[in-house]
Amino acid sequence: MVKKLRFFKIILDDENLLYFPGTFLTGKVVLELDEDMPIVGLFFHIIGECVVQLLGSGGIVSGDKENYIDFRMRLLGDNLTRVDTQSTLNLNASMSRLLVLSAGVHTFPFRLGLPLGLPSTFLGKHGWVQYFCKAELRDPNGLVHKNHQVFIIMNPIDLNQEPSLLTQPFHSEIEEKLGFLCFTNGKIICRVRLDRGGYVPGESISINANIDNNSSAKIRKTCAILTETVQYTSKNRIIQSEVRELASVEKGKIEPNSSDQWR
């Protein structure tokens, strides 16, 4: 039976595999057969899920899972043709309900409205948010031919819904004293200011900073780093955190008792 099936694939209409909440996921399942082939049915499953796994030396220490999409449809076959792959197919009772696909190419389109509020696709060290489609072609011999296709969800952040981040600038000041025990070598003061408290991907972040080196030590360099902090939650508690460096810029040395500015 396997040799009869030349091609079996899920093809999404968007070649970039990128979709947004509230839009439609559209595509088709394409089969190509070398000769006629009896089948029980063609089944399609769309899944969106979040999985958190904290691994230890003995396996999974803690984990959790949340489903966002769990949609099943039957692209070919009726309610009586669905067969549990764990059980034995009774051919005498089911032969009258078998379908025969002729040799050649067969196309089965699908269309699903994606729910609003879906989180963006994400892949991390201890978990992921993933969306994918599965197709199963089942034949009378109990064989299940499978195909799998991942797609990407992007849920843009609308900062217009967070006016406080747009209207209130960010300001921070850090003071570090240098020395050992009772001996002091002065202090370093760093003042950082951003024009607002929120940005979206693709925007430039303008950094305004003053570094006052009121010490006898030379500062070799200053560096601004944009980091991302990811918290993994399982059973309503944070089980792990991950910090990623997204971008960085550097400036040169600052001599003792001198200052430098970022503009």
From TrEMBL:
Gene3D superfamilies: 2.60.40.640. Residues 185-263 form the Arrestin C-terminal-like domain. One of its GO terms (cellular component) is cytoplasm. Residues 8-160 form the Arrestin-like N-terminal domain. InterPro entries: Arrestin-like_C, Arrestin-like_N, Arrestin_C-like, Arrestin_domain-protein, Ig_E-set. GO terms for biological process: protein transport. Belongs to the arrestin family. This is Arrestin domain-containing protein.
